[in-house]
Amino acid sequence: MQSNNQIQVLLNDTSIAERHKNIAQKVLDNQRISFDEGVYLYQHANLPYLGVLANHIRVKRHGNNTYFNKNFHIEPTNLCVYDCKFCSYSRLIKQKAEGWEYTMEEMLDMVKAYDQQPVTEVHIVGGVLPQYDMEFYMNLFTAIKSHRPNLHVKALTPVEYNYIFKKAKIDYATGMRMMKEAGLDSMPGGGAEIFHPEIREQIAKDKCTGEQWLQIHKEWHKLGMRSNATMLYGHIESFEHRVDHLEKLRVLQDETKGFQAFIPLKFRNQDNQMSHIEESTVVEDLRNYAISRIYLDNFDHIKAYWAMIGRSTAQLSLNFGVDDIDGTLDDTTKIYSMAGAEEQHPAMSTKQLVELIKSVGKKPLERDTLYNIITDYEHFEFADAPKPSYYALPVLN
């Protein structure tokens, strides 16, 4: 395996620090690195070194396989009872003139608009409002499943569930069981931000704690269900805070094995209360992907959102531990563009996405939410005729 040879080169390089070599040997031997070693990588490891280690893990797990899916995104509202300092998307209730609130009927109409299109998932996440309560979402999930039983419902974060369950006066275990019975199939990874209370208190003071976020995912996993995880990086957190976040995820994954993918989310500073903070560089973005891949040895997938970081950085990330770059998008996914993403009007056809993956020597695979392969595009030939509209579906994972 070529990645093995690259690590051997590192181990034989007399200019490489001994601690770098010890970590490289651990990766080669499939051994877990420690908290202190994770911090050390953030503090001292350069990008080429991290790329060798992260790519070794990626190749060992997935070869050249690179995953994407086709889904559509419903954002019920951008009004919110919370005031997160980093958020460019939501508007407080007092700013109602700038917001939207979809009714259940409007959201069902959005689902029905995709009836003749080969989507496999609907992703639902938005702001937190009192009227979007337990009954509302249970009825919504049930209605979606009644209309299209095979459509995978991936919906709401622990931020929303914590609020909903508290309002309903039920515990997490009961609430997650009821959501599953109503039609919820999996949970996205949002709302994690940074778990450490020192940072969370400053950037997301009022919403669920890191411990509550983890507990809600734990209860979901105990039902035999899957979810994703995220980390918002590149703002006021230290490297120790990042590793603390990764460590908490790794510990829970050891216990439940319920997480599918980890998605590092780059802080964007457009139109929010933290606009004075400079954004991380592309080099730091790639370092963060690589260290995440190295540290989270019990996570199957590391995902990058191409619309958030840009197409070229997404391509680069595929050599730094990332094996999933999301999917085709259009500008109905407002969270990206409002936060100052690289792609202000994100849209990519399936053909474009496949070509983007192939052009860096990777194998494009369309998957469903649970990573079952739908189409292998490695040798797929696209016709020259105009493509149906479903080749530019809004997708967010």
Structure explained in plain terms:
With 397 residues, the chain is an alpha/beta fold. It folds into two domains: 2-61, no CATH class; 65-392, Aldolase class I (TIM Barrel, Alpha-Beta Barrel), CATH 3.20.20.70. Helices cover 43% and strands 14% of the residues. It contains 16 helices and 13 strands. The protein has helices spanning 2-12, 18-28, 35-44, 47-62, 104-112, 134-147, 158-168, 172-182, 197-203, 210-222, 239-256, 282-295, 306-309, 311-317, 334-338, 350-358, and strands spanning 65-69, 71-74, 79-80, 91-92, 121-124, 152-155, 186-187, 226-233, 259-266, 301-302, 324-327, 363-367, 373-376. A four-stranded mixed sheet has the order 11-1-12-13, covered by helices on one side. α8 crosses α10 and α10 packs parallel to α11. It is globular, with a radius of gyration of 21 Å. 48% of the residues are buried. Mean pLDDT is 88; it is low at 329-333, 335-341 and 385-397.
Layout of secondary structure:
Elements (H helix, E strand, L loop, with lengths): L1 H11 L5 H11 L6 H10 L2 H16 L2 E5 L1 E4 L4 E2 L10 E2 L11 H9 L8 E4 L9 H14 L4 E4 L2 H11 L3 H11 L3 E2 L9 H7 L6 H13 L3 E8 L5 H18 L2 E8 L15 H14 L5 E2 L3 H4 L1 H7 L6 E4 L6 H5 L11 H9 L4 E5 L5 E4 L21
Parallel strand pairs: 1-11, 1-12, 2-5, 3-4, 5-6, 7-8, 8-9, 9-10
Antiparallel strand pairs: 12-13
Helix pairs in contact: 1-2, 1-4, 3-11, 4-12, 5-6, 6-8, 7-10, 8-10, 10-11
